[in-house]
Amino acid sequence: MHIYHKYTAGDIKGALEAQYKLNPVRLAMDAASFPVAAKDMAH
Predict the structure, then answer these.
(1) In degrees rounded to 5, what are phi and psi of residue 9?
(2) Spacing of C-alpha 29 from chain mean position
(3) pTM score, whole prediction
(4) Nearest-angstrom CA–CA distance, 13 and 11
(5) Is residue 34 classed exposed, middle or buried when 0-12, 13-18 and 19+ CB atoms within 10 A define those classes?
(6) 6: closest CA among 17, 22, 25?
(7) Which of 1, 36, 37, 39 is surrounded by the fewest CB atoms within 10 Å?
(8) For 3-43, how does the pLDDT look when each residue is reduced to its tens digit (9 = 90+)?
């Protein structure tokens, strides 16, 4: 939600910075099947 709140507040630069921090996790999930990857990362 951090990215969303920054974006809706007009802080585009801050939203992009937060997105870039999240990208490694998002990209790791793309390489695996979604439900399994999400469950493993939650643990």
Answers:
(1) -85, -5
(2) 10
(3) 0.59
(4) 6
(5) exposed
(6) 17
(7) 1
(8) 999 999 999 999 999 999 988 877 777 766 667 777 777 77
